[in-house]
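Internal ticket - ligand job 267, adenosine-5'-diphosphate:
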Amino acid sequence: MKKVLTIAGSDCSGGAGIQADLKTFSAHGVFGMSVITAVTAQNTQGVFAVQDISREVIAKQIKAIFDDIEVDGVKIGMVSQVEIIQTIAEELRRYQPQMVVLDPVMVSKSGYHLLNQKAETTLVKELLPLALVVTPNIPEAEVITSLRIKTIPEMEEAAREIYQMGAKNVLLKGGHLEEDSIDVLYDGQEFSYYPSPRIATKNTHGTGCTLSSAIASNLALGHDLKEAIALAKDYITVAIEHSLAIGKGVGPTHHFYTLYKKAGLIE
Ligand SMILES: Nc1ncnc2c1ncn2[C@@H]1O[C@H](COP(=O)(O)OP(=O)(O)O)[C@@H](O)[C@H]1O
Ligand SMILES: Cc1ncc(COP(=O)(O)O)c(N)n1
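stdout (structure tokens):
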């Protein structure tokens, strides 16, 4: 069985972060592992508190996994602050995993800064070069590049800029566009496009976490990057189509729709 690791924050309400990542890994038939960087108190309505985990304990979690287990894929999500980013970067430089997907989580859908703003440049400097692909959403790409992004050509321009900052591949996600939800990949040579019609739902809590974990799973399973992204895009589209009206705010996506359907557990 392939083994995939998420390095991210805990979302107690189960829609985003570590919890979304582990559900995504399970739905892909890979063995999920987690290094927890922070514990958040959040739900579908907002983020109410964050307790960062100490850099020592983060480093020891990474060491405990890599010293013992062969890791086939890594996804990085919420990393909070400068010291935590430096610790993760140091450990990854030591163990050198090849299949790293970096989701540069900055602000929650409810507007809470999950990444200290002082750490934005550290994230780019330290983690971007270690990743095979970085998956910013439009607001994150705007922070990284200082560009304003509203159209596909503007997404292409931003993806080029992020590539020039040291990313091997840039997948700029289009969930925040007004029209269809088109994700744009730039590999330094050409653009590839992953379109889907916009699904009319407010329940998109954890979509970015889920997409990056699905890409990491597909890479671990042996797919090349373009294939891994295409399959992950299909997975997130089904997960949003069947998203769950749980809680009073922005509900989570459905990780197991296809599996449950095949098993006859849902109509
Ligand atoms: N309403 C929607 N309909 C269809 N796809 C969507 C929708 N919202 C987001 N997506 C897709 O979900 C994934 C996550 O995108 P996005 O919402 O931009 O990321 P984030 O959760 O980091 O803000 C992308 O593949 C995007 O195209
Ligand atoms: C612990 C944690 N990590 C990440 C997100 C971003 O979630 P989204 O994918 O909805 O932007 C979150 N809300 N909480």
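Auto-summary: The chain has a mean pLDDT of 97. The pocket of adenosine-5'-diphosphate (ligand 1) is lined by residues 137, 173-176, 181, 183, 196, 198-199, 204, 207-208, 211, 233, 236-237, 240 (CB under 6 Å).
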